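Quick look at the format.
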Amino acid sequence: MRSAPHLLLTVAVLLVAGCDCGRGRLVAANGGSLRVTLVGADPEAVGLTIKLGDGDRVRETSARISTLPLVTMLDDLPPGTYRATFTAWDVGPAALRSVELADLLIAMGGITEVTIDLSRGVVVTPAESCDGVDNDADGQVDEALDLPVCLTCLAGRTTPLGDDERCGPIACDGLDTFEVRSDADQSTCVKSEHAPLLTDRCAGAGACFAPNGQGCADGVERVVARAEACQVMEGCEAGTPSVSWSPDGTPCGAARECRAHLCVAIGVDAGPPGDPSGCADGTREGFLSLTSYPAIAACSGGWSVPGVTQVVAPACGRVSGNTSSNREGAGCAASDLCAGGWHVCRGKDEVGQKANGSCADAVPGGAQNNSLFFAVSQASQNDTSCDSSGDNDVFGCGNLGTQLAPAKNCGVLTRALASTHPGTCGFNEAEPNLGPWQCLGGTQGDLHEGALVTKQGCTNTSCSYGGAPVGNADKGGVLCCAD
């Protein structure tokens, strides 16, 4: 008798509640069955003997090997654990090869399947299937299954999922729309944005939702462009909105027309209302040319009432500015730096329009580096990116602060004060003891600098930079735009 080699051996127990489903075979309700599949044997083998032993009980059967694979069944086996021996014989008859399986489980009302290969010296593990059985005999049940998308194995049954990470992000931006909305004062380009589908991505067993399909959520509206009086908006519906100035003489209301970018009564001087300098103290520190920049001014000075992102009403009667009697800006808001008929510029779009598409002239020639920052009322949610809401970070023009990259979507704005720690504006040269900018607030102050910012950190020129004293009125202020 030859020594027993390694073998290919697969064992599976199918609990089929009395039915060998798909094979047309009934299983005894009070016992189990063994199906043996021989897939390989020595060329001279002509027969296979299967011997089962369970204590005093022994069950033996033989089958002739004519073609492979050979399948044979043993039925009506009492449930329990058996020692099984599989032996191939030649015509002698002499035993050729034999293999023993010490713990073969026969389950009530089930079929135990055994696959053997007596011609090779390898063990091949069968694939696991979703049936509540340890098909590959590794101590785990229904593991590492290769199931179709949106299906999982639960309690031995394939079960549909509501969401499956294998779907990946599902694009919905093909549903985005753009719409122009107008009222008496302005026109806005409103985008309905559809975020990618990241949850509830399964359309059914084996299928993810299609891109831009019924699984996508409703859009969220966002204003992407705004045109005020004497401005024209184009390209909104195509998704490429642009705003330009209306020519002088364009009607902008009853008995009113556009003159120098302003909507004024016909026959009235078109110059900006209030002080034409735009600054409350009558002097500009940037955009110096009134001819080139009649509707925007850079105004230096301090203020003590926090905030620039939201509109803060003047608090000290506009007695403020670096050449005023109140250089410290005590009791003043940022808007006190602007002359009557002017306001703190409302973000990147207004600055771009009134500064002729560039912030370059906000800093006059010869200005010292890191010496000027002029803030605007620009919203942001996070990451120094310009947005339509939120008061995170302080944005503006100048040569002081973090430089803004084009990807930040901030248009002509070039600089920002942005902190990652509460109680600071986030740029060393802007803050004490080098500058007066302060963003003092609570434990989440680094998320709301635009609502907290003041210029009160260098009272009585208590700071210095580059060998020169620095006070609250220094290192910039705000950009003021004509109403």
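Next, a different chain entirely:
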Amino acid sequence: METSIAQVQTPHAQKYLRQLAKHFAHKIPVTQSDNAAHLSFPFGACDLTASPAELCLTVTSEFVDLPRAERVVGDHLSRFAFRENPIIEWQRAASNT
């Protein structure tokens, strides 16, 4: 499995976390607490954590599916946060293999 992380600066992190979790819960399994959520896609997973100034997105997937996972989560966040035009820069974690 491969991991990619994006830390998005926003004062609305908790709001976007709730929106993403609610949106995806109609289609895939989602677990959520006040400041965290886990999205289980067929092609990988995404963990969201919200702080007062940042939304952290961590996607985990097989190498071949990692760009898809980044794109799906990033595109949805961009749509929900369109007024802010968030900067989503994915950083690939070192491979465990």
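The chain has two helices and six strands.

See the schema section for token definitions.
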